[in-house]
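Example complex used in Figure S2.
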Amino acid sequence: MKKITIEHLARLEGNGGVTATIDGNVVTDVKFLVNEGPRLVERLTLGKTPEEDVNLVPRICAICTLSHKYAAIRAMEKALKVNVGPKVKLIRELMHLGEMVESHALHVFYLALPDYVGFPNAIAMASKFPFEVKIALEMKQYGNHIMKTVSGRYIHGENPVIGGFGKFPSRDELVWIKNRAIQFMPFVLKTVKLFAELPYPDVPESETLYACCHPPDKKYGIVGDEIILSNGDIIDVQDYKNLTNEFIVPHSFCKRSQYKGKPYSVGALARVNCLGERFEGEARKMYKKYFNARWTKNPLFNNAAQALELVYAFERIPGVVDEAVKLPDEPLVLYSQKDGKGAGAVEAPRGTLFHAYEVTKGLVSHTDIITPTAQNAEDIERYCYITAQKLLESGQEEKIKDRMDLVIRSFDPCISCSVHTVQVKRAPEEDWKTKIAALKTDVSPVIIGIGSPGHSDDAVGLELARRLRGQGVKEVWIEDEALEKSGAREADERRPLLFLDAVDFGERPGKITIMPLQHAAWNAVLSHRLLPLVTSQISFDQLKNSYILGIQPASLEDGEQISEPVRLAMEQILEQLKN
Amino acid sequence: MPDNKLKIGIYELTGCAGDALLIIDCEEELVNIFKAANIEAFLMAKSDNNDEVELDVALVEGSVSTEKELEELRKIRKRSKALIAIGICAGLGGMQSYFLDDKDWAKNLKAVYGGVEMIHAKALPSKPIGDFVKVDYFLPGCPIGKEQFLSTFARLLAGNPPELFRFPVCVECKWHENDCLLNKNILCLGPLTAAGCGSVCVNHNLPCVGCWGPSEEANRTAEYKLLLEKGYDPALIKNKMANFSGTSITQFFARLKGETK
Ligand code: SF4
Ligand code: SF4
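Predicted assembly (840 residues):
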């Protein structure tokens, strides 16, 4: 068995990495790890005043500092019934656009582009793309400048508060920001061309669901009181839990999300997929010119989507300034409400960010924060899995490491994802035995035999289940029973399910491989019989806790005989599973 | 070719990456920083990081909150002549060190992650790096300030120790000719908070919330008394200070209490 590890990856939530495990011809596991320690932000904000909460939460991430502040303010204003005036809304939009410009410019030019033009990093790239590197730096500086002007500091500025701003930027400062935006435009348009025309490889391609904030008035935008999905579903931000359905995996301090049992993606590409038709002006022209079906299923196009959003931002900023300078500065909106409940969502550069609070007697009594990376983690794993498996199948194993890199980076988990080490390791033979032993330590798994009799080795799962029963092993199900009686579902939700089946991995006959069922669901080589069972009979919690133990068949032809190598494998499995 | 430039490493433990990002945000100066010293490791800025080399100075951001980080920190200390804590997470523990009592921390950890055991890293109650290794200097701030960072860096290049402000935010606030917020009955932590940020919040008509951590100046007792005279409840002041003071809050208030007797 082989292990590919990409360490030190996701700055958003701290240090992270990806590990892919390869057993022979099959990728048996992909894990997106977040290594950073727990900060318990949701707990330490309890008992604080709403203002203190708004001071603290931006410290979750320096790169999305203003998105955290803005999401927290939106949630608190909802909970405390604070309504701010039009100028406050405009200046908040400006700071939010500034953060997006800063983050996107850094990501597309410094982190993504070097990969595609064959340089190890941006500094090295400067020799061939001096102009791009220089302008990109200026763009990033410009984004930083907006953040500092509006929030007070480059990082963790405290000027945006519940009810408005401590101080508004001056007219001169705003006009400077507007004029500079106009100067950037020609270069921004070139950026879209550059990124939309990059030769993105097909391999991670796979349909997914996209989600983002649903801005009002049929406009493109980066905040909203609703969430829109690419399948047309609309969810009120107050009901955000219907989208995020969080759960915990034991390899990460960052929680995970799935919508109706499926992973979904958030970020620039999600926004362009859900809202692209709403672009106006140059952004619309560019969108019409470049958007196509590949953008709907290939995460690598996130770079192109970010470039499109740069056009949007640079076109929108002068408009925001024009409207804002016409309005008088608004005094802080004071409030007397001491109790309430509310959620707020904004689009951070890398995707939808939720903050939700309950305030009781003037103090925070409940906090829930869901970051974009938490929501993307499932899709990052899934796309990495698809990448690894497809490249393995087409004999391009040597490309897996770099391609997974590209995929992860396209999700823009955060800026130190530019730096990581990738390792390829052979893991021990017979890894399945270790995993089964580990599975059995907590509670014994429910065993489900799958197969069809009369197709030689395809009966192995059924045969195994029968023999285990014969040996007195309890909680063994056979495919049809599991289907009919909903046996699997009735089993204790916390117990792992272990499916036994013949699986064609293109391996030597009799080879035994174990993998999480979740991966099996994405894996085309696996038995199609399993899918209806998985989707109809198993709750999502169980899916996370289930495995498939596959045996490579020698033959699936008609016939009653199970082949010799598969028989030997059966004996080994019986030995491992009995008692 | 061997040169006599300082060897510097910049490391991140548990925090928000704000201090490392602030160094990157030094944009124009960043090129010169890289020229003037050998930056051997800086995860956020470069990929060819050397994790073996002996360092003249290690800059460490973030608190220790997993066993893995503790191990990493000890290794860094071993191969560095001087170690500087950058930011209040490294220096004081930061907001994540809010649960001072280990049992309380364990209870809260469980409330977030249920009983799920993390396989990759064992969590520890978050503590400042000085609880585990010797820290030679501490650059306060959340995040650190550009001016203090650059002046510290320049002094290091010249072989001098950092020189930080030993007065509270109030002094900077006076420099900026702000009206004192305490006169408007707004509780501002400026009198108790270390200076260095340029009193930026007060310049924006907002009270200081203490993000640079407690000030260590000699006069702090008088400052604290001033707040008490204004009628603020010591418990309220302590609660507000606790947000950014990490584990240092206990000693800070113990000393204040002793001094005000
Ligand atoms: S001190 Fe502040 S800026 Fe630095 S890592 Fe901690 S939270 Fe981030
Ligand atoms: S909270 Fe205080 S120390 Fe922090 S930036 Fe504001 S004024 Fe400065």
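Chain A touches chain B through 56 residues (CB under 8 Å). The pocket of iron/sulfur cluster (ligand 1) is lined by residues A 59, 62; B 15-16, 18-19, 61-62, 87-89, 94, 142-143 (CB under 6 Å).
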